[in-house]
Structure formats: C-alpha cells, structure tokens
Design brief:
Number of domains: 1
Shape: globular
Largest sheet: 11 strands, mixed
Number of helices: 15
Structural class: alpha/beta
Radius of gyration: 21 Å
Helix content: 25-40%
C-alpha cells in the first residue's frame, strides 16, 4: 500500500505546480455572449427531447454548432436541459462525446422542473459529481443513475467546474470551494419550492464537500418549513474529513427532529478506494468514504478480536434517541470493482443493487450483513460474475 501511495501521491503533489489552468485563445466573454447561452425565452424545439435538468457554474461555449460546457468558471449560474450523450466521428480527429444541451431562462427552467415533479408526486433527484469530471462524463453518470435506480421523478445534475484531469485535484478542490455559494443558493431555492415534496441528493467524492455545508445552510435558514423535504442524502465515496463529519453533522443535518422527520444519510465506503487513500495522504487524516484506521491501537484491538481492521465514522449520540435511523454506512470493501475502487456505486454489481434500493427509499437490504457497529453493514461478493453481468446490473455499456 505504501508503494502504491507513493506512486499516486507524487503526481498529485506536483499537480499544484506542474499543471496550470489555461485560459485559452478566445476571451471567455466571447464564448458566452451568444443568445444561445443567454436566452430571453425558451425555444420549445431546442429543449424538445432533453429530459434531464442541469444547473451549472461552468463557462459555456456557444460558438460552435453544438453548445458545450468548458472546465472554466463563469460569472453566473445557468440553467439547461440535456439529452443522453452520444458519440460522433468528425471528418478529422478522434471520436467525441457530444451532450445535446440547451439553455433556458431561469424562470422557464423552474416551471419545467415543477411540471415534471408534479407528474411524479413532487420527488426530485439532485446529483452532484466529484473530482476529475467533465460535463460529458457526468452527463453519462446522470443517465446511468437514472437507468439504474429507475427513479420516479426529474433528475437534476449540478455541474461545477471540475477539470476532468488526474493532475488537477488542487484546481478541482479550489473550484469546489469557490462554488459553495452558488450551490447553496440553488439548493435553498429548490428546498423552498412548495411543490418539491422530496429531494434525494446523490453526491460522489469531492461533491460531498459541496452538499454537506449546503444542507447545513438550508437547515439553519429554513423559515416556514423545516427543510424536511431534503430527506435522503447519499454520499458515495465521500472525500470528506471523517472527524469533521462526526463532530459537526449532528447539530443541523442529522438533528433528532429531522431524523424523526425521515432525514437520513447513507455513506458508501471502501478500504480499497485508492483515490481516497491518496486524499488521506494529502490531507493527513482519514476520509469519510474510507474505513482506514488512523489509530493503530484501535486497528490492533479489532484484529485481536478477529474483526477486520476497518474504522468508520461513529454514529451521532442524542440526548433523546430518534425513533428512526439517521446514519448508515455500507462497507463495500469486499465488493470493490473498477481500477481505482472509487466508483463502486456505478461499477460493482452488489453496490449497484444496494444503491438503487437506497435511492428509492429502502432503509434495509437483505444483502447487507450486520457488523459489530449497529450503523455499519458490509456487502459481500455473491460469486464470480462476468463483465456482461455487471454491465447489465449497473446499466453501463460493455467496452
């Protein structure tokens, strides 16, 4: 493990000085000045067939035939609709992924979301991506989450300016913090819509650092409502300081009254997550999505008891225990799949099944195995599976 960390650690350390964000050859204002980037009214033909909703702080590029989103910041949040990504082969060059995208005036976008939510009992799913992503890659994940979960309601992708580059972790972290205000303002407005009855939030990796403080903000500033429509929060491989989460989460996000009103958080964590192992090395302390035992004495004690050395965030202690369970950790260490083990919720057949059930409100799963911690469950392999079987269960194409 130390050798692996050294291999992965070096490029990430160097990323702070060897990789710079390039401005480009065209002034950013020219990229976004087209009316297609700033419509005064909706074009019904432009949004036709685009069933997915997007909110983005990425700089748009409306100069070409296809509207696209760059990896740069922009001066305003924009609202858009998009269709599933498709591959095109240009006359010259490599095959490219194109995401059919059309911007809308904010008011029209909200009206469209309202109409879609009202058809589905007011349920909305909000997906917040993590590190090393582009809009095409997160659009693909959004479509996969929809297909995998069969979620009965509109899907919103919040797209912040991740660079989509292995060596740009420091840039992504910087942009994520820069975008905190934009995201919390959007989540606040979403939570305060009377027609939004339930918000399911799915975040991956670094995206959890946008979601948790934003939910805290909404909870603190709620007036007429108790932000109880933010009910089901799923953190997949969260790149969050574990001790910070333990210390701060109970005050607002998992306050007893909210847990009793159906608020809950589910964390998917794996000790085989290489990306979070690197993040731990960079930040110095364990991440919420990795059950690494920072305390070696605790690890030895677990091993002495015949228990795997895996350490998790502790469950919140209340003066009066809520009647419901507010915090659950699903340990995916034994079923980790994929090169980095950082996207089990979309790559492992066992996790895909559990994730789909959790998105749709399930609090228990027959495949979960109890552990010594009442709030922690592990998943185990169900036998050898083929790539085709995983693809079918997780709804991704076999390459």
């Amino acid at each position: 493990m130390q050798r692996l960390l050294a291999i992965l650690f070096v490029p990430l350390v160097l990323s702070g000085c060897s990789v710079a964000v390039q401005y480009g050859d065209i002034p950013h204002s020219q990229l976004a000045e087209s009316p297609r980037c700033n419509p005064d009214k909706s074009d019904a033909s432009a949004v036709a067939g685009k069933d997915y909703f997007a909110v983005t702080s990425r700089l748009p590029d409306c100069l070409g035939d296809n509207v696209s989103l760059t990896n740069h910041r922009t001066d305003r949040v924009r609202y858009a609709r998009f269709a599933p990504p498709r591959m095109i082969k240009p006359a010259k060059g490599k095959e490219q992924t194109i995401v059919p995208l059309a911007f809308q005036p904010e008011s029209d976008w909200w009206d469209g979301l309202r109409d879609a939510a009202n058809l589905r009992k007011g349920r909305v799913l909000l997906y917040v991506h993590g590190y090393r992503e582009t809009f095409p890659s997160t659009a693909k994940d959004t479509v996969q989450i929809t297909s995998l979960s069969q979620f009965d309601g509109p899907i919103i992708q919040y797209s912040w300016p991740s660079q989509g580059n292995l060596l740009s972790y420091a840039v992504d972290e910087t942009n994520m913090y820069w975008d905190e205000r934009n995201f919390r303002n959007f989540l606040t407005k979403l939570a305060r819509q009377q027609w939004v009855k339930e918000i399911v939030i799915v975040s991956h990796s670094l995206g959890a650092r946008l979601v948790i403080p934003a939910v805290e903000y909404v909870d603190r500033t709620s007036t007429n409502a108790d932000s109880s429509n933010i009910s089901n929060i799923i953190l997949a491989s969260p790149d969050v300081d574990r001790e910070d989460f333990e210390r701060d989460i109970a005050e607002e996000v998992l306050a007893a009254r909210r847990v009793n009103n159906d608020r809950r958080i589910t964390v998917y964590a794996s000790l085989n997550d290489k990306a979070l192992a690197v993040s731990r090395a960079l930040h110095g302390y364990p991440r919420l999505g990795s059950p690494y035992c920072f305390n070696p004495f605790e690890a030895r004690e677990l091993i002495a008891k015949g228990i795997p050395a895996r350490c998790f965030a502790t469950k919140t202690k209340y003066e009066t225990q809520p009647s419901k369970t507010g915090f659950t950790v699903v340990d995916t260490t034994d079923v980790t799949s994929g090169g980095s083990g950082h996207s089990d919720y979309l790559r492992s057949i066992a996790v895909c099944r559990d994730f789909a059930a959790t998105v749709n409100g399930a609090r228990e799963n027959a495949d979960r195995i109890a552990t010594q911690n009442a709030h922690v469950f592990r998943l185990q392999p169900s036998g050898k599976v083929t790539k085709e079987q995983v693809a079918a269960a997780c709804k991704w194409a076999v390459e």
